[in-house]
Write a structure and sequence with these properties.
Strand content: 15-25%
Structural class: mainly beta
Strand order of the largest sheet: 3-2-1-7
Radius of gyration: 19 Å
Helix content: under 10%
Order of helices and strands: EEEEEEHEHHEE
Number of strands: 9
Distance between the termini: 33 Å
Number of helices: 3
């Protein structure tokens, strides 16, 4: 990873109160690069906000039109990102001959020239920076990304965050979960279909 690629249809945080990057914000991302830490996701990511104030308020539709030459990402029928790597993702990266091209035998969409799993990511925590320490939130984030015991800090702070998960009847309610109505996949020869 990321040499084999990764397709994140949506990435969002589940928090109501996390500044302007809580559950009202989302993103779509392709992760790709010859090896870690060379991940060129910054060239193929799009950030957007929910039209109705929050992605938690209602169902939304994410779509990818993925062809042999490009990928188009949509949220609620609005185009949010077009990825066309030109001659190849390798050339798009600008690495030239500094490294070995792991996709030299692939076509222009390599590593996205094969079957893939799609990711629908509702994040609740982590230390990779997706939950920045500097965001002002009420209650504040109970861990620091650099803490050697971040997971324990998260658990110890549950008195602040657990009530926001809409508990009911002695357990966390379904309203605190990622709810998926359906996933549809079609194989198309062209976008015109």
């Amino acid at each position: 990873w990321p040499g084999s690629g990764e397709i994140d249809i949506v990435e969002s945080r589940g928090n109501d109160n996390y500044g302007d990057i809580g559950n009202q914000a989302g993103g779509s991302t392709l992760h790709w690069g010859p090896h870690w830490p060379l991940n060129f996701y910054g060239m193929t990511t799009s950030q957007y906000t929910a039209n109705d104030g929050s992605f938690a308020n209602s169902f939304h539709t994410w779509r990818i039109d993925w062809t042999s030459t490009s990928m188009l990402f949509y949220v609620d029928d609005a185009l949010v990102m077009t990825v066309d790597p030109g001659s190849s993702f390798w050339d798009y990266s600008g690495l030239g001959d500094q490294y070995d091209n792991p996709w030299v035998a692939g076509d222009k969409m390599a590593p996205f020239d094969q079957k893939f799993y799609f990711i629908l990511n509702l994040a609740v925590g982590g230390t990779n920076g997706f939950f920045p320490d500097e965001v002002t939130a009420d209650p504040p984030k109970p861990w620091a990304n650099t803490s050697p015991q971040a997971f324990l800090d998260f658990w110890n702070g549950r008195g602040d965050w657990l009530p926001s998960w809409e508990q009911g009847e002695g357990r966390i309610s379904e309203n605190a979960a990622l709810q998926v109505d359906y996933v549809k996949v079609w194989k198309m020869e062209s976008i015109e279909q």
